[in-house]
Design a protein that fits this description.
four-stranded parallel β-sheet, 104 residues, alpha/beta, 4 strands
Length: 104
């Protein structure tokens, strides 16, 4: 799990105990795309993309990840990259994702 730069870094992390990836406002541009492990991995990936993200808005994120395996995008309405005033919505998506992974 990670936010912004940390989301991009998280998408490149792998470990045997890793159940999936949850990335909040990933710019999908911090490092080489080839470094990402999530795109080709069957474990679930959820990207929480703010509606008005200045770095990678939802339409661009959908296009960028169109061929990623087992990846979903949830749009966080009414906020920009910094998710001001929307952290409760981001948290709700994170908890749902964790629940679906049966980790809670």
């Amino acid at each position: 799990m990670g936010y912004s730069f940390g989301a991009d870094v998280a998408l490149a992390v792998d470990h045997d105990d890793l159940a999936g990836w949850f990335a909040v406002a990933p710019p999908l541009a911090v490092g080489p795309v080839d470094d990402y492990l999530a795109p080709a991995d069957p474990r679930p990936t959820l990207l929480a993309v703010p509606e008005h993200d200045q770095f990678r808005p939802p339409a661009a994120a959908r296009s960028f990840t169109a061929d990623w395996v087992n990846t979903s995008i949830v749009e966080i309405p009414g906020c920009d990259h910094f998710c001001t005033g929307a952290t409760n919505r981001v948290l709700a998506h994170a908890l749902t994702f964790l629940d679906e992974l049966d980790l809670l």
